[in-house]
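Hello,

I think I submitted the calcium ion job twice by accident. Can you confirm which output corresponds to this input? Input:
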Amino acid sequence: MAEPTAPLVLVVEDEPAQAELLRYNLEREGFRVALAGDGEEGLMLAGETTPDLVLLDWMLPLVSGIEVCRRLRAREATRAVPVIMLTARGEEGDRVRGLDTGADDYVVKPYSVNELMARVRARLRPTRGASVGQLLRHGDIELNGETHKVTRAGTPVRLGPVEYRLLVTFMERPGRVWSREQLLDRVWGRDINVETRTVDVHIGRLRKALAREHARDPIRTVRGSGYALDLDG
Ligand code: CA
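Support: Only one job matched these inputs. Its output is below.
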């Protein structure tokens, strides 16, 4: 069984055998899995669970994969979630259309499960920073780079993978002001095409997760520049 803090992958696939194959392999990788059998259910589950990644079949009943992708991108909560499209069609036009709609990656059926798992891991990979295996502290926030556990004033903080990587970046250099572009490079990786606005969405989630009654907001917004972790100033 995957840990409750493991990344959640939403699989939207109408062929039960394919869905089960994906579930089996994703769980073996240590991910949590949610399955949806059509586009409508996929959108509903995406709203309820805010997955860390979506594997999305192109040909789906009720709502097509491409429409699901479009709607995920239009929603605040799922705008930044990586989407890998799965399709039996391999025409270049479809590929471009899929990427235009906001899919991050595109895999043609029949795909190699190993290759697909490698792509999923690449999208969910945590930052390999100086903090790996280290205990980082700033004010009343503690981050264990080995167990990925985060606490504030001794109580656990639950973070998604993106928020965790943001916090790692901040904790490595408290007080440093990071621009949105720098955070995109550090947290999402240079090769991933994400809007800078996405950073604001995840900063918002991180703030919410770190919020405690009567405690200061540890993240400072620097007008026109970006963000800093700053409990001292
Ligand atoms: Ca299908």
